[in-house]
Amino acid sequence: MTSDNDRRRGLLARLRERPAARSRGRRRLGAAVRLIAALMLAGGAYTVFAPGAQAQDNPQLTGAAAEGKALFDVSCVTCHGRNAQGVEGRGPSLIGVGAASVEFQVSSGRMPMARQEAQAHRKPPVFTDEQTRQLAQYIQELGGGPVVPEGDDLREDGNIASGGELFRINCSQCHAFGGGGGALSSGKFAPSLHPATDRQIYAAMLSGPQNMPVFGDNQLRPEQKADIIAYIQETLKHDQDPGGFNLGRYGPSTEGLAIFLVGIVALVFASLWIAGKS
Amino acid sequence: MKRRKFDLAATPGKAAVGVDDRFAVATPLRKLLNKVFPDHWSFLLGEIALFSFVVLLLTGVFLTFFFEPAMTEVVYNGSYAPLQGTPMSAAYASSLDISFDVRGGLVMRQMHHWAALLFMAAIVVHMLRVFFTGAFRKPRETNWIIGSLLFWVGFLAGFTGYSLPDDGLSGTGLRIASAIMLSIPVIGSWVTSSVFAGEFPGTIIISRFFIAHVLLIPGLLVALISVHLGLVFKQKHTQWPGPGRTNNNVVGERMFPRYALKQGGFFMVVFGVIALMGGLFQINPIWLFGPYEAWVVSAASQPDWYVMFLDGSTRLMPAWEINIPLGDGYVIPPLFWPTVVLPGILVGLSTMYPFLEARHLKDRKSHNLLERPRDAPARTAVGAMAVSFYIVLTLSGANDVIADKFQISLNAMTWAGRIGLLVVPPLAYYVTYRLCLGLQQHDREVLAHGVETGIIRRMPDGRFVEVHQPLSASNGHADGHGQLDYVGWVVPKKMNRLGALGPAIRGFFYPIEKPVEAPVSPGHPPVEARPEREEIGSGESRR
Prior knowledge:
The complex is a heterodimer of chains A (278) and B (543). Chain A has 278 residues and is an all-alpha fold. Chain A has helices at 2-8, 11-16, 24-49, 54-57, 63-75, 77-80, 98-107, 129-143, 160-170, 172-175, 198-207, 222-236, 252-276, and strands spanning 182-183, 189-190. In chain A, a hairpin with a 5-residue loop joins strand 1 and strand 2 (189-190). In chain A, helix 9 crosses helix 12. The radius of gyration of chain B is 29 Å and the shape is globular. The two termini of chain B are 58 Å apart. Chains A and B meet through helix 9, helix 10, strand 1, strand 2 and helix 12 of A and helix 3, helix 5, helix 10, helix 15 and helix 16 of B.
């Protein structure tokens, strides 16, 4: 074929060659062939890499995932719909959210939600660890997505100092300097980090639950995530508060409350006492 | 050689004579030590501010020994592990050193900060006392103005101090301050670039604020406080009305020894409360905020409480931007109104209030006697209006924390603040006004009819009447009621307050005298008046 001949002669040769040397018909034929080849390449790549449509048509679930599907069909299907495709106005599709998201939402008790509201609250989990894993496996096999690494201690070798810096840059805007959480718009909020486990923090960074942005592995590398978790778990949670009672670490607002409730009240009583002793 | 006998008892007298021989101070000192101060608990509120200012000076001097007011970048190497190896300014590093490596540094820093909050709180509480009792009236308008200025200078002192540690919180505050300065039309950019020596944050602002915080502002505060106290001395303290108290005298205790001793004791109490708070309650944990970086802003970044009303007014302000088509177009940002115009109006209104009120009431007399808040309903209601305005703004300044911790929508909080700012103050005015009138009426009622005894008597014709204990002997009225004049002081409203206007039992921990046995079941109401009774009036300083 013409295009094959051209290819064998090398790129430079083809560039040097005057285009006028070829007839218009051959040029058009070559273009058509190249277009078809490109389309076939793209389509082939798509069929190879795209998450299979067969997930729905022909679910090849492992044992754990099948158990998870059974749980899902009882507890989650009302809002997230059949095959986790979501229900308009009730719950989003879970295709592609990954095991990390399920692990975060279910292990922290946020899912199943108590009621439809701005944001799910943390509560005692409904499912056991084993059941959570099965649900996660089911969602993972449905559509893939991010997965939390194995193990309960995800802060090994974490550098607290660099974790602190990353925390202040990436997390403190919403979760506040002490990790106590803060308000967002319209009833939404960034929750307190104090009850969170290593895995939950990691899963939240990977999956970006509710209003949290996703911190994928190209935004925060896994070792940076370990640093942040180390800072949260070892500094924020175990800081001894060298200055005494920390007033909830809510910043100057509770300090202002304290000066009136403690300082002014004590001193007004003192002045009542002193002025009364005449 | 004969040894002279040393007479210990005569030493103080001899020493005093020696001092007086040289300096001739006996006459002025006698006048000073015999100066009389009226005694009432509410007159001690200003002293809380004065004494916390002394604590501020003492702890502040300690802090300057270790603080380094420079923005040169250093790498932290102190003992707080989570920040080791972090680049930061020398100011922040030295603040961390004060907190972790200087012996007693943290408690001193915390005492300094608590004392600052207390200073401002005591100023406000003292100001409320002066306002609601009418102590600002002629001839004391100047002292009222100085007091208001003390609040605003204290505000500046607090803000500059808040900015010094150069942690994330102070940097955020400075950033907001620079934005406020920038929002001033025409001169904004010049003001900002002259304060910061160029763009925010620059490299010099900490050194400048340091000098302002440790020299200029305290100097101004000391000067204003001296004039304030000097005027109290010169114009004499106001007093509550009562027996023997007129507009032209002062009834109370001499400065020396009792008043001075009491003040000394009260200073110790204030110092103790500040020290306790500094030791027990953690304030501004700068190590958690980290060094200031322009891209680091924590949630719940608030100013200290006395600045919070400005934060609140900013949060409530709608985003109304004024575009003026002049030249390339000129913009007045919405920030200008709540942070420059509003405090300007507040300063003007608060300092000028004594003149506004005198003008309104056409009152040109001098007043040395205080008024009970209920006796000036309009003033009390205006005060309640101002306080509620300030409280709505202050709460709105913390509305994100309130929204988060009480699980309220932040948007709902903002709207509640906007509506509340317009609705609550007039409501507070109306409610306070009615409360004052009601209290006045009850006072008059008791003076006319006597104290309610709680005893119901059935009349022969079947009617029920409550027995009242008249406050004075009958003066010919058919029902046995006498008419007493209201003297502007507490009217006894309960039977056990009759004739004993102070606490009935003396002694702090244990009663030093036995209370009189009360009749267990008063079958007969004690309607006959006791033969001897104290005059109705303040009687506060007497037992």
